[in-house]
């Protein structure tokens, strides 16, 4: 097992046919799951370096085919519109500089950089898979340790009695890291699973581990991510269906066992969550009254500026205006929802870009479902490729709270699967017509 994990790294380092620049930037990409644990600075540096590398490389060698698709063009237009809206906002300097929003376009160049590096380096995906699996196992073990003993292996205490932080110190983002990285890692893993029952069981066991620890973190949105992704696996991947259903019941059994061993866990994790989501105007949706107040404040801003919004990343300043205050908790750095943030800060014009992207992902899923129901195998997308739009569909699902649209740490986890999506849907000569295995 160890030799299988080490082999791709040996090939990456000693294969002389791969240019040194490709090897170097591939290494940066492979290390991203590791540096994400350290905080937002290193991931953003790695992302920016890969983005700049691809930009220079694509211009110098005239690799224009990477730009010729509607996702890239739409993202660049969206980024340009955001800059223009910032310039004409009430807080132009703050709008342009907060979270590096003036350089928001770097994310699409990073995604194209991922696409380019995967094209040029046959060992990259396997190396990235090994590192991602290693990181997830470590953070899951550490998070469980913190749940049981109230401190992690380095002595970091919980964020609160309801939230774990693990290796992330004071930041309660352990669940988000596990959820987003695990569904992307499963997409990478599927290529090597095939129809082997042993590998299918191991991959489902991996998902069970992740969803149990995500549940223990007390973070609702990440739990929704892994649950929705598991449901899509059951719907779309026949050879995983029964084992994934069994895995779901195993997850439930483990959580019930934890409640039996530690009765306070039910009060802290389950009862507290049910109480919070039942107090909102639309009960049982995965957000709280706190989120609802952000949304209402943002929607008031939208009503005042319906077409162009208040300006990129300026919710944090405008929410202090008395006409937008819902309560003493309604003001924050962002509204905690991609689409509502776009409505408030970029208006209907900005929202249209996000809706078109989500519509593209939804259309891919509906077409795949139709062809599966009709048994039209020739038009079905290979599940190896179909998993990447599934991952993005889950991330962009609108009925959950989100981090800021401009948060660099979160965008690294979003743009990794986007890079693979671009490669598999626009990297073939047929431009999106994928072949079935």
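^ Assign residues to that structure.
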């Amino acid at each position: 097992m160890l030799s299988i994990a080490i082999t791709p790294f040996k090939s990456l380092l000693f294969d002389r046919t791969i240019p040194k620049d490709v090897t170097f930037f591939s290494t940066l990409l492979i290390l991203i799951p590791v540096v994400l644990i350290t905080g937002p600075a290193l991931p953003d540096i790695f992302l920016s370096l890969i983005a700049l590398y691809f930009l220079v490389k694509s211009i110098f060698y005239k690799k224009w085919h990477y730009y010729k698709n509607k996702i890239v063009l739409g993202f660049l237009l969206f980024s340009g519109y955001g800059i223009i809206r910032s310039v004409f906002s009430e807080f132009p300097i703050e709008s342009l500089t907060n979270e590096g929003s003036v350089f928001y376009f770097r994310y699409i160049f990073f995604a194209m950089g991922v696409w380019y590096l995967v094209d040029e380096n046959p060992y990259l995906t396997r190396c990235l898979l090994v590192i991602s699996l290693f990181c997830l196992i470590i953070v899951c073990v550490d998070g469980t340790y913190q749940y049981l003993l109230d401190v992690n292996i380095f002595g970091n205490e919980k964020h609160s009695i309801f939230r774990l932080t693990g290796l992330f110190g004071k930041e309660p983002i352990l669940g988000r890291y596990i959820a987003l990285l695990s569904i992307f890692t499963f997409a990478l893993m599927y290529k090597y699973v095939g129809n082997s029952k042993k590998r299918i069981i191991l991959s489902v066991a991996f998902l069970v581990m992740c969803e149990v620890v995500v549940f223990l973190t007390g973070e609702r949105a990440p739990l929704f991510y892994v649950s929705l992704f598991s449901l899509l696996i059951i719907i779309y991947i026949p050879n995983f269906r029964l084992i994934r259903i069994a895995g779901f019941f195993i997850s439930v059994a483990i959580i019930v066992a934890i409640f039996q061993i530690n009765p306070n866990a039910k009060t802290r994790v389950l009862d507290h969550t049910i109480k919070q989501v039942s107090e909102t105007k639309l009960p049982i949706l995965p957000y709280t009254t706190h989120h609802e107040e952000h949304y209402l404040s943002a929607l008031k801003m939208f009503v005042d500026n319906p077409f162009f919004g208040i300006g990129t990343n300026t919710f944090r300043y405008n929410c202090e205006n008395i006409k937008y205050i819902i309560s003493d908790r309604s003001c924050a750095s962002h509204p905690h929802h991609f689409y509502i943030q776009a409505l408030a800060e970029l208006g209907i014009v900005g929202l249209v870009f996000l809706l078109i992207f989500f519509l593209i992902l939804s259309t891919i899923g509906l077409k795949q479902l139709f062809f599966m129901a009709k048994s039209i195998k020739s038009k079905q997308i290979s599940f190896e490729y179909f998993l990447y739009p599934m991952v993005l569909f889950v991330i962009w699902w609108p009925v959950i709270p989100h981090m800021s649209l401009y948060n660099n740490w979160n965008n690294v986890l979003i743009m990794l699967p986007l890079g693979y999506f671009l490669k598999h849907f626009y990297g073939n000569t047929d431009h999106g017509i994928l072949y079935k295995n």
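The chain has one domain: 2-281+333-426.
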